[in-house]
C-alpha cells in the first residue's frame, strides 16, 4: 500500500467512527424523547426508596383516650422523618387482651418490618410477641412493660418514679398529714401498678402522718367503671383529704365526682396524664396536680429506636421518656407546655 492509499484508508476509518458516534448520539436523543428528562434518575431513586421503605405496626392498649392520640402522633412524626409507613391498630377497650393478641398475630401474618406495642397485660402478650420475634419481626415496647426480655427496647416513663413524685406532691399539698385514698386502674396493667406502688411506698416511708384509707379498689378500663368506683369510695369515706389517681380515666372520674359531690374544696386531687378536660380542670381548680408523661415521645422514640436497631446502631434496652409534675403555678412554663400540648393535630390530620 502506497502513501496515498494509506491516507485514504485512515480517512475512511475516521469517517466511519464519526458516523457511528453520530448514530449513537441520535439514538440517545431519540430515547430521551420517549422519557421526560430526569425520569431515569427518578426511577432509580424510586427503586432505592422502595428497597429501603419499611412498614411498622404501632399497637396501643386502646384507642379511646387522648393519651393514645399523642402516641400515634409521635409515631407518625418519626415515620415521616425516617421513611417508615405507620399502621395504627389496637383494641377499642383497654381490657381486651384477646383482641390485642389477635392484632399482633395479624401483623405477624402480614409480615410487617417491625412492631411497636404498648402491651395491655404484662403476661398475656408474651407468647405473640415471642412469635413475632421468632418470625424475624423486631419488637419495641412502649408505655407499659411485659415480662419478656426479647424486645429491642422499652421506651416509657419511669412509672415507679412517677408515683414517687405524685406522693411527694400530695405530701407537700397536705402539709404532711391527712387521710388519703388511692383508686387503682386495672389488674395486669404494669405501668399503673408501678405508679400505684411508687406512691404507696413513698407515702408510707416519707409521710408517716398520712393515713391510707383505701388502696385496693379498682376502677377498671372504662370511664363509667371508674366513676362508679369513685362514687363508692366517696360514699364509704365521708372525710377524705387527698386522692391519688394513677391514669387519665381515674383522674377524670374523681375530678367529676368530687366536683358533683361538692367535696373538691376539702380534697387534694393528684392525678396522672393530661387531656383537654384535665388541663382545664387544673386551670380551674378541679385538679391540684398532674404527673404528666410524654406519650408523644413514646410513639416517636419507639419507632426511631426500632429503626436504629434494624440499621445496626446500638440501642439502649431502657429509654426513659420522662414526666413532669404540673400544677397551676407552673403550667405555663416551657417545661410543662411541652408535655401538656403535644402537636397532635400537626400529624393526625
Task: Please provide a brief summary of the model.
The chain is an alpha/beta fold and 349 residues long. The chain contains 13 helices and 12 strands.
Describe the structure.
This protein is an alpha/beta fold and 349 residues long. The chain folds into two domains: 51-157 and 295-321 and 343-347, Rossmann fold (3-Layer(aba) Sandwich); 159-292, Response regulator (Rossmann fold, 3-Layer(aba) Sandwich), CATH 3.40.50.2300. It is built from 13 helices and twelve strands. It has helices at 3-34, 39-52, 66-82, 97-110, 126-134, 159-174, 190-206, 223-236, 248-260, 276-283, 295-310, 334-340, 344-347; strands at residues 54-59, 84-88, 114-117, 139-142, 153-156, 178-184, 210-218, 242-244, 268-272, 289-293, 318-320, 323-326. The protein has a six-stranded parallel beta sheet with strand order 2-1-3-4-5-11, sandwiched between helices. The chain has a six-stranded mixed beta sheet with strand order 7-6-8-9-10-12, with helices on both faces. Helix 4 packs parallel to helix 5 (126-134) and helix 6 packs across helix 7 (190-206). The termini are far apart.
Present the secondary structure layout:
Elements lengths: L2 H32 L4 H14 L1 E6 L6 H17 L1 E5 L8 H14 L3 E4 L8 H9 L4 E4 L10 E4 L2 H16 L3 E7 L5 H17 L3 E9 L4 H14 L5 E3 L3 H13 L7 E5 L3 H8 L5 E5 L1 H16 L7 E3 L2 E4 L7 H7 L3 H4 L2
Parallel strand pairs: 1-2, 1-3, 3-4, 4-5, 5-11, 6-7, 6-8, 8-9, 9-10
Antiparallel strand pairs: 10-12
Helix pairs in contact: 3-11, 4-5, 6-7, 8-9
